[in-house]
Design goal:
The chain is an alpha+beta fold. It has helices spanning 4-27, 44-49, 51-54, 92-95, 97-105, 153-158, 160-166, 168-190, 231-239, 277-296, 319-327, 337-347, 357-368, 422-437, 448-456, 468-476; strands at residues 58-71, 74-80, 85-91, 111-120, 126-137, 194-195, 201-202, 214-217, 222-226, 244-252, 264-273, 300-303, 306-309, 315-318, 377-380, 392-393, 396-400, 402-407, 410-417, 461-467. Its cofactor is Mg(2+).
């Protein structure tokens, strides 16, 4: 610990110096926090890209000082703005003696505005010859670069603002995230979909197998839950005649944290009347291809050690065929739950007493198949037991018209031919209630208002839910969901 004390003392002294500088500025009527605006004419990258047109012309830029070199009567500094950074040449004879004296006291991390002419240095670096410099905000902390960079992932996630300053690739990830969501909206709007908003506080958190967060609404003295899905309200809109709807919004699931899960995340669901899950497959394939091309300029996506090809037709395979391919077990020939459990015992697949044949098929898929699905693959026709809101296959009623898209072994979306039979739906809810009573706290509960909507009549409908964060992970080559969430959930430092 003795080696740390000098560093801590030096840091404390530096922090004191910054506060002293601020106090001196304020005493001399130069309080930077009194500055209310600065008219920026150009960003750094625009100046560099349009140098031939801007050479010799006056521009105004603003940003954070990332480095300084003081050389007597003239100095250089590098300032960082949203898209990049640019060098400025600051000379006493150009900005005045008093302003230059002030500039020399500015610190790395301070935010300044610079006005001056665009030029190119002898070494060929595009720069700004400052004619005026103004301090817009005083930084009272030390940027991590002073102490070997910001590499501690825990600090990066807790202090994303610092992470964005110090790591350009992090900023680029979140700029790209915004572009991805914009591209999704453009695609769906072009397909005639309407963006809507539905409640986050609900009395019945349905539409997915997940444990909700619970709260209490004081004004009505009622318990409420945070939504785990967007499904049941969007289907109500289909009943109401809004034929193509989508919503992009936060949902909340009371579950653990890992590289693919955060308790609050961004989900997009869309519903289209008069189509089925085949229509949803076509839409998904086309949309993924469109977004990749728009955002990355190519449908070839590097992820980890793989090259994902979104340009090729996505593979389509049933869950039964996928399990048969990777385990040799053909569940079409498995007679009943008893035989399924016997095979599970032989293969070392753990199951619960309440599980039936369809559940065990899904357990086999998760255990033996998912990790192999690297290139885009639609896995279709799930067992009815794990699909309480999905239309049965007419020719095979123990299975449903459902698919999940897998890329790099990860589920990217989940889609159905939506169940629109209110009698069947009530029976499915009743089965879910039984599962809840048997200890499945992720089971759905009966939603009487939703059943009432189905009784009014819902047309044949295709629906789908996309994990936006996982799509962003894919298109930005990010290994963990925390890398694509600006402010991921973190354990309190007080605990």
């Amino acid at each position: 610990m003795s080696e740390q004390k000098p560093v801590e003392q030096d840091l404390n002294e530096l922090l004191k110096v910054r506060r002293t500088k601020l106090a001196d500025l304020q005493e001399n009527g130069k309080d930077p926090f009194q500055v209310t605006k600065y008219d920026v004419t150009h960003h750094s990258t625009v100046i560099k890209e349009q140098f031939e047109d801007l050479d010799g012309k006056t521009v105004r830029v603003a940003g954070r000082i990332m480095s300084k070199r003081i050389m007597g009567k003239a100095s250089f500094c590098n300032i960082q703005d949203l898209p990049g950074n640019i060098q400025s040449y600051v000379a006493r004879d150009s900005i005045g003696e008093e302003s230059y004296a002030d500039f020399k006291k500015y610190d790395v991390g301070d935010i300044i505005g610079i006005e001056g002419e665009v030029f190119k240095t002898k070494t060929g670096e595009i720069s700004i010859h400052a004619s005026s410099v103004i301090l817009l905000s005083k930084s009272l902390q030390i940027l991590p670069e002073k102490f070997h960079g910001l590499t501690n992932t825990d600090i990066r996630y807790r202090q994303r603002y610092t992470d964005l300053i110090m790591n350009a690739d992090v900023k680029e990830t979140f700029v790209k995230r915004s572009k991805i969501i914009s591209a999704i909206r453009r695609y769906l709007d072009g397909q005639g979909f309407m963006e809507v908003e539905t409640p986050m506080l609900v009395t019945n958190a349905g539409g997915a197998a997940a444990r909700p967060f619970e709260s209490h609404y004081n004004a009505l003295d009622e318990d409420v839950k945070l939504r785990i899905s967007l499904e049941l309200y969007l289907k109500r809109l289909i009943v109401g005649g809004m034929e193509r709807v989508y919503e992009i919004g936060r949902v909340f699931r009371n579950e653990g944290l890992d590289t693919r899960h955060n308790p609050e995340f961004t989900l997009m669901e869309l519903y289209q009347a008069f189509t089925d899950y085949n229509g949803m497959m076509d839409l998904t394939e086309n949309m993924f291809r469109y977004v990749a091309q728009e955002v990355n300029g190519t449908t070839l996506v590097p992820y980890a050690e793989e090259m994902i090809d979104l340009g090729k037709s996505f593979e389509r395979i049933t869950m039964i065929d996928a399990v048969k391919k990777y385990t040799g077990v053909d569940f079409d020939t498995v007679a009943d739950t008893e035989e399924a459990k016997k095979i599970a015992d032989e293969k070392g697949v753990h199951y619960e007493a309440r599980h039936v044949k369809g559940d065990i098929l899904n357990l086999f898929f998760e255990e033996f198949v998912e990790e192999h699905l690297i290139q885009p693959t639609f896995v279709m026709d799930h067992p009815v037991e794990i699909s309480p809101l999905t239309k049965r296959k007419p020719e095979k009623p123990e299975y449903v018209e459902r698919f999940e898209l897998f890329i790099y072994g990860r589920e990217m979306c989940n889609a159905y031919s939506e169940l629109n039979d209110p009698i069947d739906q009530r029976q499915r809810f009743e089965e879910q209630e039984k599962l809840f009573d048997q200890g499945d706290d992720e089971a759905n509960h009966t939603d009487e208002d939703f059943l009432n909507a189905l009784e009014i009549g819902m047309p044949p409908t295709g629906g789908i839910g996309y994990g936006i964060d996982r799509l962003v992970m894919l298109l930005t080559n990010s290994p963990a969901i925390r890398d694509v969430l600006l402010f991921p959930t973190m354990k309190s430092l007080d605990k």
